[in-house]
Amino acid sequence: MSETEADSLVLLIEDEEDMAELVGTLLRKALFKTAIAHSAWKGIAMAEELQPKVIILDLMLSRLDGFEVLKRLKETPLTGSIPVMILTGKRDQASCIRALELGADDFITKPFNNRELVLRLKAVLRRYQPVVGFLTAGDLQVDPFALRVRVKGRPLDLALIEYKLLCVLMSRSGEIIAREELLETVWGKDAGVDIRSVDTYVYRVRTKLGDHGAMMQTVRGRGYLFRKTDQFPHSPTVVP
Predict the structure, then answer these.
(1) How far apart, in whole angstroms, are the C-alpha atoms of residue 206 and residue 187?
(2) Is the pLDDT score of 192 beyond 90?
(3) Least reliable range by pLDDT among 22-26, 109-113, 148-152, 158-162
(4) Scanning 151, 163, 197, 228, which has the fewest C-beta atoms within 10 Å of its C-beta?
């Protein structure tokens, strides 16, 4: 068992309590951290609040159709980059195609094979891992293949967007990256996110990093850089 799954929060949006309990138990046995929403609206709210690594979504929800939930998740900046797996009793090809067109990353029908579900969940996680090696800066350690961040050996809980932002900056340590480039790299070219979101999320990551947050520096008029303590003895004008 790799550390990837053990450190990954999975949000299950399923309004059938028996099915939710079945899948939740399966995920916990596979060492996934698991949160369950028993309604569509609760699922949307929890996705925004918890920023899970993956969402497993049922299509046949009461009150709000699962397709509409998927559409809202993908159109909302806070959740648009979170991968979504569909787990549904709908077995027709049209439903599968529609879900994939709306941005779903995988489509699994009920009844399902337990092992297959876990393996496909792991595959989705692997696709969303940045292609960079292990990143270190003093006591700050980031393992992109395990989606894990540690400060002085202690795990740090970052939302997916926060994690991606830190990875981009650390992987290009010492390089000034413009806000526009960070926006496109982290959120995506067509995310429709305001440029000020970059500043907001940099602030959030800095706060969570504590003393190590000073390594994420603002270069006035240019963007951001991640600077290790031994870099740039004569650096550009920066503000913490």
Answers:
(1) 18
(2) no
(3) 158-162
(4) 228
